[in-house]
Structure formats: C-alpha cells, structure tokens
C-alpha cells in the first residue's frame, strides 16, 4: 500500500512521457514526475519518495523532503490566506492547506504557526491544524518520571511554556525552570520531572536530581576552559547572574560546583571559581 503523507520505498516499474511509474508490489502505482526523476536509474530499482496529492487531487510522488509529514508537528510559514483557508509552505510545490475551522487563531500571510499534519478522512487530503492540543492525549501515558523525552515548544501560558512530549502528550515547563530563550516550534530534549493528578506532566529542560550534576559539572568545566580557567561566580552570586552566565538555576550551579570541588577540579575563591 502507498501511504499518503509518508515516505514510501517503491519499485520503478516503467518510464513514460510524464515520468516514472512506481509500484509497491501490491499493484498500487504512483507517478514520479519528470522533475524528480534521478539522472540514472534502471527499471526494477527501488527509490524512496514522499506521496501526496497534486493540484489535481491525484496521488503523486516526490523526492523533495517536506518540512512535515503525516502525524508530525512543525512550525510553518503561511504563504497566503484565501476565502477557503490558509496555505502553508511545507517545502513542496503544492502548499499545505489549513481550513479556517482548524485555525486556533486566524492565520495571516507571512505568519509562522505550529501545526499538526493529518489525513482528512472525508476529503482524503493532507491538511494542517494549529489546534495542536486536540492531537495530544494524556489519558494513557507512555512516559514515566525521570524519562528523557523529545519536546516541541507549543505555546506560552501564564505559568510557563506548554510543550509537546514525544509527539503524543502535553506537558508544561514552569517559568522558573526556563534558563534559556526558547520559542514556539523549538525542538528540545527534556526530562519528566513529575506526574501530577490527571496525568499532567511537569517537564524539566535539564536532568533531575543527581542525574543533573554530571552534565552541569561538565558544562561548567567547559565554560571554565573557554574563559581562561575562571568564572566570576560563587555561592554568593545571584540567581540572575548565574542564569546570565551559565543558563542554569543557582541550585543546579551549587550542586555542580560542589561535585567539582570534591573532585578537586576547581578552586573556590571570593571572586569566583578557578580551574585547577
């Protein structure tokens, strides 16, 4: 079966005037237009292509790589808005359609929006939706506390930043856990800090507890090396100064510095820390 909105590895069946016809071994065929035909090929070769519908609503293959595929989330630019809806740039000749009913806020030409791509069962077309939360479910979690997870920054709230966890769940990074600039659409690594009642996920952008000491300690060592073996920070430094220099909390800084001091890798003086 040839899957729309996904990458398919297909066999070259025949060479025709409009392009190559590809098959899946189950008598399903799709056209790879001439503009995407490789310079050299042989009948019977296998080729990986992305399948979608062209402007005539016909299944077509391309070797271009879209910015998003079915089931994924991505930050896309709106190229134009018509009476039918918005059309987004997703890296292919035909733009990705986002109906008005699927827009969390009315889209504007030139704006950037985090969207989910799915196959509309009524029209059998790939469409986008900026109502991303409806494609997430926390009823049955596939993560546990302290798990490392993949994150996509979704949208801000009054208490922090909402994030998409492993493309399946909704999580939250609290304001006091954010020590670097992050923007909607950013892809990050994080850790499940806590699972609250209702399967609400508290996410940390760093590792938790003792798991956090080693990477932070290594980061401080690297910063010391890059700054002539000295950083103007110590236990008396303000949280704001530590955040500006190292993008970590004072608590994490003190844990990491304590670890480095015990290992005799640094010296702590009144004006800062020194690399031994």
Give structural notes.
The strands form four sheets. The chain has a five-stranded antiparallel beta sheet, with no helix packed on it. Strands 8-7-6-9-10 form a five-stranded antiparallel beta sheet, with no helix packed on it. A five-stranded mixed β-barrel has the order 11-12-13-15-14. The longest helix is centred in the last third of the chain and has 14 residues, at 213-226. The protein has 276 residues and is mostly beta strands. It folds into four domains: 7-62, Nucleic acid-binding proteins (OB fold (Dihydrolipoamide Acetyltransferase, E2P), Beta Barrel); 73-133, OB fold (Dihydrolipoamide Acetyltransferase, E2P); 148-205, Beta Barrel (OB fold (Dihydrolipoamide Acetyltransferase, E2P)), CATH 2.40.50; 210-275, Winged helix-like DNA-binding domain superfamily/Winged helix DNA-binding domain (Arc Repressor Mutant, subunit A). β9 (112-120) and β10 form a beta hairpin. The model has no long low-confidence stretch (mean pLDDT 92). It has helices at residues 213-226, 239-246, 250-262, and strands at 7-15, 19-23, 29-33, 46-53, 59-62, 73-81, 85-89, 96-99, 112-120, 125-129, 148-157, 160-165, 169-174, 187-196, 200-204, 230-231, 266-269, 272-275. Residues 4-63 form the Conserved virulence factor B first S1 domain. It holds the Pfam family WHD_CvfB. InterPro entries: CvfB_fam, CvfB_S1_st, CvfB_WH, NA-bd_OB-fold, WH-like_DNA-bd_sf. It comes from Winogradskyella wandonensis.
